[in-house]
Please model this.
Amino acid sequence: MKKTEFSIQIDTAEEPMKQEEAVSKVHEKLEKQEPLIELRNIYKIYYMGDEEVHANDGISLSINKGEFVAIVGKSGSGKSTLMNIIGALDVPTEGEYFLGGEDVADMSDNELAEIRNRMIGFIFQQYNLIPKLSVLENVELPLLYAGVPAEERRDRAIRSLERVGLADKWKHLPSQLSGGQQQRVSIARALAGSPSVILADEPTGALDSRTGREVLSFLKQLNREGDTVVLITHDNSIAVRADRIIRLQDGRIIYDGDAHDPRAVVQPDEPPEADIAEQEGAV
Model:
């Protein structure tokens, strides 16, 4: 998990005790850092006739500012439901959700719309660009809904397009761009509102493998520049590009940790214990 770095200036001539105190203060600051995203015991329950379906079944997690996190799971694992809750597109049946310190779980539809527009930048698998609008107008759209004045809208949209390397395409229509370029426009649109969180839902799903790698590299670069990125995917090869993986199965978290730990990419239906038993049986 990525931690905020604090600069420590210590006179080497100082007593060792003072050095220990300085380091201790740094650890205290890290521990006191308020999570950007915090979910506490989240349940999302649906009713299908007499059957009660727990799409999310007691999920608790926190994500700090500046992290790059992948939420991974197979179809039916609950990852899309969790994405909708994190993205303020839905509210939990039970539990608490805080986004930037604000209690989201009990918000009204209008309040959810306001916090989405203010704090979350969405990147979708199918780009969701409006065909009749230019690249610039597509990037400006969420700013228009937010009531940002025209001149400021244009300036912010151009800056976002510059970040994704498409400022020279601002007059083009989406149909005049490649799939990878269209996805970069959707990233620029997400960035234009200066969101607290970039929420990317299967952002490479509609792209070929080479273009998909380029988009992931770009998300990685945004994270290095300080953006908080939450990536939703079913694909292990994509998830490992993040720094941290949260793996879901049957609506519950079964792994939360370093993306480069071998346990992060073990398939949910093939636990390590099963592999060990199989190897022992073969001996």
